[in-house]
Amino acid sequence: MPPPTATLSVPSSSSPSLFPLSSFSSSNNPHVSSFCPAPPTLPKFPSLSKPKTPLRNLPPLSAVSIEKETLISERPHTFLREADGGDDGSVRSRFQRMILEAQESVCAALEAVDGAGKFKEDAWTRPGGGGGISRVLQDGAVFEKAGVNISVVYGVMPPEAYRAAKAAADDQKPGPVPFFAAGISSVLHPKNPFAPTLHFNYRYFETDAPKDTPGAPRQWWFGGGTDLTPAYIFEEDVKHFHSIQKKACDKFDPSFYPRFKKWCDDYFYIKHRGERRGLGGIFFDDLNDYDQEMLLSFATECANSVVPAYIPIIEKRKDTPFNESQKAWQQLRRGRYVEFNLVYDRGTTFGLKTGGRIESILVSLPLSARWEYDHKPEEGSEEWKLLDACINPKEWI
């Protein structure tokens, strides 16, 4: 699922309430999905059934203003604030450099394998600080839609947003909490039904607080993951993909892969269907119980593993002949992808509820999808095998 892209100001009789607007998508919105707080509470208006004052005296809807991002013609050298010291070797600056480099390498690899499509780039900044770069390849020779987004943003979140960002309901933090969020998020939808969709998302989050804001000490954490969503199972492809994820994890801790593989299976679960979105990979969030330098290196290794994990599969499957029935099955599985993102993904939901940049929030959705009433694949068919693996996660390596 993305970091916040705007700030919602609701004037009131006291100081204004500030709500971060996110497309940090889990999995990250990027917009890299990372959190989804409860929707903001707007000012209470007098009863319209028995108004105590004339309607013309009520606060107008325009009193709710959204501080939007501004598109810029050229990307800046950095999205970091000058107060952060620019490229000073801090975790913030090195994570920014990592996601910029990952965006470049992934987009170059995708353009090379597509052969025809080129990425369109939009760069933006926001008044509250930071900005981002959205890149989208659409209607290429291989990819129906491929989005690779980064964002580096600053803002202030209310306590409920902080708790959602941490995914910990009992973590009470009074008062607005300043934050910094950076991440890369990508979803790749190939045209060929035998070529799998891929999602990856890596993010870094910090909170800080002024000395006069009690209960909100500086904290940080990493999150993200890479997962595979095919319409058809080629076991050698799935094993290759998972082996690359395991290799990246094993460089840092042998417990990472089994732990994060299960986390991925559990997170990308479509509860109302009783099935997973795809065949998994790795996923982690709120990770701060290891050395910060180690986790920065781990996130970098994971981001760098995307190309070797995915491109060989695409090269192998992009030209496989297919028929209309197989394409229709791919569209049905795309429907499941849409359902998860719009119903369960924290970053997507947060962005939609709070007015983030819609093009960045929904860049993960495919150009086309399909829903059929009560569709059930024939038992034993290739389609049934995929569905069975989504219902009953397997150990691939």
Automatic annotation (TrEMBL):
Domain of life: Eukaryota
Enzyme Commission number: 1.3.3.3
Residue span of region Disordered: 1-37
InterPro entries for the chain: Coprogen_oxidase_aer, Coprogen_oxidase_aer_sf, Coprogen_oxidase_CS
Keyword Chloroplast set for record: yes
Gene Ontology BP annotations: chlorophyll biosynthetic process; protoporphyrinogen IX biosynthetic process
Pathway, per record: Porphyrin-containing compound metabolism; protoporphyrin-IX biosynthesis; protoporphyrinogen-IX from coproporphyrinogen-III (O2 route): step 1/1
Cellular compartments annotated: Plastid, Chloroplast
One CC-aspect GO term: chloroplast stroma
PROSITE patterns (alphabetical): COPROGEN_OXIDASE
GO molecular-function term, one example from the UniProt record: coproporphyrinogen oxidase activity
Reaction equation(s) it catalyzes: coproporphyrinogen III + O2 + 2 H(+) = protoporphyrinogen IX + 2 CO2 + 2 H2O
Keywords: Chlorophyll biosynthesis, Chloroplast, Heme biosynthesis, Oxidoreductase, Plastid, Porphyrin biosynthesis, Transit peptide
Keyword Metal-binding found: no
Feature: compositional bias, Low complexity: 9-34
Family of the protein in this entry: Belongs to the aerobic coproporphyrinogen-III oxidase family.
Quaternary structure annotation from Swiss-Prot or TrEMBL: Homodimer.
Protein name: coproporphyrinogen oxidase
Upper taxonomic lineage: Eukaryota, Viridiplantae, Streptophyta, Embryophyta, Tracheophyta
